[in-house]
Amino acid sequence: MRLRVAAGGPAALKVVAAAGAAAAPVRLVWGGPLERPLAPLISPWVPALELDSGTVLFSPNAICQFFFLARGEEPTDLTNQWLEWDATELQPAAAAALYTQLVHGKKGLEAVEALGKLLAHIEQNLSRRGTAYLAGDTKSVADVVVWGTLFPVLQDQTSLPSELQALRTWFQSMTLLEVCRKAADSVLTPKALLEFKSYLQKQPPPSLAMERATSNEPEEEEGSEHVLTEEEITAAADAWARGAAVLPKPWQPQKPVLPVEGMRNILITSALPYVNNVPHLGNIIGCVLSADTFARYCRLRNWNTLYVCGTDEYGTATETKAVEEGLTPQEICNKYNAIHADIYRWFNISFDYFGRTTTPYQTMIAQDIFQRLLARGFLLEDTVEQLQCEDCQRFLADRFVEGTCPFCSYEEARGDQCDKCGKLINAVELKNPQCKLCRGVPVVKPTKHLFLDLPKLEEQLEPWLEQSWATGNWTANARYITRSWIRDGLKPRCITRDLKWGTPVPLDGFRDKVFYVWFDAPIGYLSITANYTDQWERWWKNPQQVELYNFMAKDNVPFHSVIFPCSLLGADDNYTLVNHLIATEYLNYEDGKFSKSRGVGVFGDMAKDTGIPADIWRFYLLYLRPEGQDSAFSWSDLMVKNNSELLNNLGNFINRAGMFVCKFFGGTVPNMVLTPEDKRLLARVTLELHQYHQLLEKVRIRDALRCILSISRHGNQYIQVNEPWKRIKGDEKDRQRAGTVTGVAVNMASMLAVMLQPYMPSVSLAIQGQLCIPLDCFILSHDFTCTLPPGHRVGTVSPLFQKLENDQIEALRKRFGGGQPEDLAVEPQAKQSPPASELPPAPATLVAPSDPQLIQELTEEVAKQGNHVRQLKANKAEKTQVDTEVAKLLELKKQLALAEGKTPEVPASKGKRKK
């Protein structure tokens, strides 16, 4: 395998050090920053690990973890938490600090100040555990990764203050390691740093708001984030004063939804789930749920939006499943299409149409594209060697063959891939092959097939890709995977198979064959739309008016970015091609993989049986959506996020705001007289709202969710500081203040209901009903306005969320734990990956940690409240006041225990003992 790095780039440091620390058998290739295939990426200094299988890893942390995994070191939960924290919090902050150092000449001490809270987090964890390394007594991948992030900024430990003693000791010990010294000497050379500095000087400064959006850090300290200007405060107050009158009116599209001239017409597809099995949580977040969230956002923006999907039903996997269950392929498709539809209905996926590929329209459109390719000379005929079962009198598709793996000797390898070693296999290479249908021994015979002439189409593909990348929004992994496919030149691609179940090939000599599912399946987007409306061509042959968004997991990328576009370009019929290709990484399950056969993980038909509402599942899956690297579902983390983020943060704020209106003001929003403090809050909330829009417009769905939670944190803090429950009992001025705080808070809750709709539609609808939000106000604006004016009446307010108990979660963890042998590979995320996929699941398994920032904040609040209680007792304050503050302290300790994944301790009784 080859590790390609560009000297000078900070990301190269950690991967070179990790390769040395793990003694990885890797060939180091030094390249310039503009060398392809690195150029299309966001940063030209990103490293790339090219595996022997053809897979390419380009996430620095994933590369580092791969080296350690290959050495046999299994990741622990603690290691995974550090890797996630480094990627989401430390790296963005360190990048910003490095920019100021190199471009503006800031010194190391100033960088330490910029990283203050993050360095304190490392110090706290090292000190608390009393270990020499981050994840235990021995050096792990976490130590190399975090050191590699910090070293370019700090260079040495002398810039670290003496109070960070544990951090200083750890940093020095890491820096003195031979592998780290050699990595620093080879990567951070003076010449390379000058080149990197020159690159940075041409880039815009890192956005602090964007950094916070990827780091989970709530904006509570003005000085640490964005300092509000008077212009921003005034603008926010003016927008608030204009009220609902300036909101755009909600637009209801015609049915069926068709492009409208002069509007933004958004066509959304999610990778068609394969019909032969039940989707698991990874399938759902990778495709349909991500697309649904964006579709709902588009509709709230009054963009004319069509979202289509359906089951992919042709191919070998369907025939195989039919044989297993003793049904016909059509019966299998009917059965599982209904299962899929029920699951997505329960998850509240807002398809405009959910169809299937086994329709006459599929045959008509696929055969038309085929005939156009044939007429334009983009198809080739060739003879290939293939296994034939003489007893069944048929050539055997890959999945109808089983035998001994030629690489690892696993005796139950499939004809396309070995489930033990993960290697891709050509079926004729299997040892001792058997026909899965009759257990006979197949023989190798020649057979003719048709191929898509990708080399001939490449001259059309390349300029189209450059144009789409320049004007559209492609995720970094989608760009890289695409470039890795075309880097060494495309090769002809077989588009026919010797099967019965599929779209027939309309050409003499091939009429006993069907189209290969990966040529045929993406055409399903068109045929499904055609089943929705006979005016489907207004969407699919209208690139001038339509923006196409494709959502998928990363293993589906090349078929949507190379093969399908080449088919449409070659057909030359003014087809709409993808503008925005949105690909996720993989979602894993706890410390392993989803597996239906082994009972591991939550599958779509099981989620509703857990008793956890669909919106909670939606929230958690979107909260840990694997946008930049693999993430993992964790039962403990689900409990923590539900109890801390939803129950104690979001739900607590919305419930309090509504209850104050009901309890103190008879259910009517009171008059509001804004103070400078209130106007600053309006500006803060407006900044979060702007960030929410910016992130969702770039389809950074997970990061935009943090903005919602940050606004509710601002709201809770606003209520806590102003204490309207006390002021309502005071004089006229205090009562007025209580009314203002309550009115502003309930309007924040109203805005959150709209922002929350793409993520938790049922909860959003519940808030709308409780607060009686007018339908005309249920639209997303870029400004925070007063949509519930004085005099507006709210309805009955009740809690939105329920606490998840540890016993309940442990029972669910045990129920879905199964028994997972370590020697079996992951089941695919989105579809049955074909043998040519070249993109097996990434080796890194990253478990979503409890929120380190939240833990740190709660720790600080516990300490602060504890000091407050001690001071009251020392001053002999009234017992009722002391008891109130002690109760607050106990509640904070409870929240901290939950955030750390612990069971809160029940306070011991302090009643008098009997004599």
UniProtKB/TrEMBL annotation:
- Matches recorded under InterPro entries: aa-tRNA-synth_I_CS, Anticodon_Met, Glutathione-S-Trfase_C-like, Glutathione-S-Trfase_C_sf, MARS_N, Met-tRNA_ligase_1, Met-tRNA_synth, Methionyl/Leucyl_tRNA_Synth
Any one biological process term the GO annotation gives: methionyl-tRNA aminoacylation
CC annotations in GO: aminoacyl-tRNA synthetase multienzyme complex; cytosol; nucleolus
Domain WHEP-TRS: residue ranges: 854-910
Which Pfam families would you find in this protein's record? Answer: Anticodon_3, GST_N_5, tRNA-synt_1g, WHEP-TRS
Occurrences of domain GST C-terminal (ranges): 72-206
Q: Where is this protein found?
A: Cytoplasm, Cytosol; Nucleus, Nucleolus
Renumbered to this chain, the signal peptide range is none
Subcellular location, principal = cytoplasm
Q: Which GO terms describe its molecular function?
A: ATP binding; methionine-tRNA ligase activity; tRNA binding
Question: What is catalyzed by this enzyme?
Answer: tRNA(Met) + L-methionine + ATP = L-methionyl-tRNA(Met) + AMP + diphosphate
Its top-level enzyme class, in one word, is ligase
Q: What is its EC number?
A: 6.1.1.10
Q: For this UniProt record, give its keywords in alphabetical order, as a comma-separated list.
A: Aminoacyl-tRNA synthetase, ATP-binding, Cytoplasm, Ligase, Nucleotide-binding, Nucleus, Protein biosynthesis, RNA-binding, tRNA-binding
Region called Disordered, residue ranges: 205-227, 818-845, 896-915
Which PANTHER family would you find in this protein's record? METHIONINE--TRNA LIGASE (PTHR45765), METHIONINE--TRNA LIGASE, CYTOPLASMIC (PTHR45765:SF1)
Q: Which family does it belong to?
A: Belongs to the class-I aminoacyl-tRNA synthetase family.
Q: What does this protein do?
A: Catalyzes the specific attachment of an amino acid to its cognate tRNA in a 2 step reaction: the amino acid (AA) is first activated by ATP to form AA-AMP and then transferred to the acceptor end of the tRNA. Plays a role in the synthesis of ribosomal RNA in the nucleolus.
Its name, as the record gives it, is Methionine--tRNA ligase, cytoplasmic
What organism does the UniProt record list as the source?
Grus japonensis (Japanese crane)
Lineage of the source organism? Eukaryota, Metazoa, Chordata, Craniata, Vertebrata
